[in-house]
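Data availability excerpt. The first of two example chains:
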Amino acid sequence: METIFFAIVSLVAIVSAILVVTCKNPINSALSLIMTFFCLATYYVMLDAPFMAAVQVMVYAGAIMVLMVFTIMLLNIRVDANKKQSHSVILGSIIGLFTLLNTVIMLVKSRAAAPTGPYSGDMIKTIGHTELIGREMFTNFLLPFEITSILLLVAIVGAVILAKKKI
C-alpha cells in the first residue's frame, strides 16, 4: 500500500515539476511549484518527519510562494508566446537527460547507507523531532541561523526599495 501511495505521489511530483519548467504563464508555474512542495511534504510525512513536513508547507508552500507570486505580480511579467528559444530548450533537454542518466546509474550501482549521527531512532521518538531540531539550531547552528535571518531582512528591504517608484 505504501509503495502504491509513493508511486502516485512521485508521479504527481514529477508532472508538477515538469509543469514548473514548461508553463508559459509565471503564475501557473508558481502554482505547479506549490504542488511540488506539497508532494515533498508528503515524502517527509512518509519518512516519519512531521515537523519537517509542517515546515515545508508553512515556509515554502506558504511564505516563499506568496512572496514569489507577489513579485511576479509586482513586476508585471508579460509572456511573449511567439518568442522561440530552441537553443535553450535543446541545452536544457540535454542537461536534464544527462542528470536523469546519472541518477539512474547512481541508484543502480549504490546501496543505502546506514543512518549515522549522535541521535538514534529511539532517542528521536522519545525526545521528539521539534525539540532536537530546536536544540541543534540554537546551540550548534546559531550563527548561520542569525546570518540567514539578516540576509532575508536585507532581501525584503531591497525588494521594497526596488518596488517603490520614488524614494
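And the second chain:
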Amino acid sequence: MATLKAQIQSDMKQALKAGEKERLSVIRMLLAAIQSREIEDRQDLDDNTILQVTEKLIKQRKDSAQQYADAGRADREAQELAEAEILKAYMPEQLGEAELAALVSEVIEATNAASMQDMGKVMGMIKEKAQGRADMGALSTLVKSRLAG
C-alpha cells in the first residue's frame, strides 16, 4: 500500500504536468510542512502524523479565511477556503453524527467515565480513534454534554 506521503508527491507531479498552479502551490506547502515536521522529529512521518499536519494546515486556512471575512476581504477569504478544500482531499472521510455519538458512547463506557474529571481520558481515547475524521472541537462539546449529564 502506498503511503500518504507518496500519494501527495504523486499528486504534486500530476499538478505540475497539468499546469494546475493553485493546486501545485498548496501541495508544495503541505509537503514543506511535512518535511519541516520530519526534521523537527528527526524521523519519517507515518500516515497518522501526516494527517495531523494536514489537519493543522486546514485549520489555519479556515482561521485565516475567517479573519479575512471579518476584514471584508472576500477575495482572500475565498482563496484560503479553496486551499483548505484542496488539503481536505488528503483527509479520510468524515464521521457522521450518528457515528460520532456511537464513538463517544463507546469510549465513555470503555473508560467508565462518570464526570467532567474524566474528560481528558475520554478525549485522549477519542482522538486516537477519530484522528482526521472528526472536528475535535465539536467532539469535545459532545463529550462535555454527555459527561455533564
